[in-house]
Amino acid sequence: MLKNPIPKVTDKLQYRAIGIVNGKFIPHNSNQINRGYISDNKGEKIETVILGKALSLLKKHIDLKKSYFWIVYPKNKNTQSLHLQVVGIWDPYQLNDFPNNSSKINFSNLLEEIDLKDNYFSIRGELVFVNTQKKEVVIKICSALKQKNLKNKNFKLSIKGELSIKLLNSFVSLDVNRDGNSLKLLNYEVIEKNLPK
Fold first, then answer.
1. What's 128-184 look like in SS3?
2. DSSP code for 15
């Protein structure tokens, strides 16, 4: 059974922003290995920070000369400034029961088997802003209440794409693709209109 790097949604109004990006992680300096950037297969760089759990994986199992599929949370201030937070590494050989001689298997094909692609992001949250002229939308993401550090519990993501202004304050589920340092809307579903305040 292939382990899906982006788990299925468990709750109708489940907020989330998670994606998968293939590339090499390059730390800014060797003393501080958790900050750097991911360089994708086109050579584009995305500012990246490695979060707690993933840091021990990085130190123990990752060869920084190789490309990996990174499981990431996206953050941005605008549609041109993507920043990634690595929460895991999707490596079917390490994390699934594949025979060791299966290195000929193509990761991209494996992703397609579970309906995913490189640079895919699943964004679920409240539509709080629509700019029809710039063709941009802003989605508000609220993190799970279980977390104790509430200082950054809510954040907003700017996404290139068009949604009707009539959908403001609705809970939407978006399929998004990374293009350089931008997130672009592929398609969407309205989960609930006019969320109660």
1. EEEECCCCEEEEEEECCCCCCCHHHCEEEEEEECCCCHHHCCCEEEEEEEEECCEEE
2. -
Q: How far apart are CA 175 and CA 186, in angstroms?
A: 5
CB atoms within 10 A of CB 139: 27
Q: What is the pTM of this model?
A: 0.89
User: Is 17 in contact with 125 (CB distance < 8 Å)?
Assistant: yes
Handedness of CA 69, 93, 122, 14 (dihedral sign): negative
- Size of the chain in residues: 197
What end-to-end distance do the CA atoms of the chain give, in Å? 41
**Domains of the chain with bracketed CATH:** 16-119 (2.40.50.500), 121-192 (2.40.50)
Task: For 25-37, give the DSSP string.
Answer: EEEEETTEEEEEE
Q: For residue 170, give every residue at least 6 positions away whose Cβ sits within 8 Å of its Cβ, in sequence order, or none.
A: 126, 127, 190, 191, 192, 193, 194, 195
Whole-number pLDDT of residue 60: 84
Q: What is the pLDDT of residues 92-120, one digit of tens each?
A: 666 444 444 445 567 778 888 877 889 99
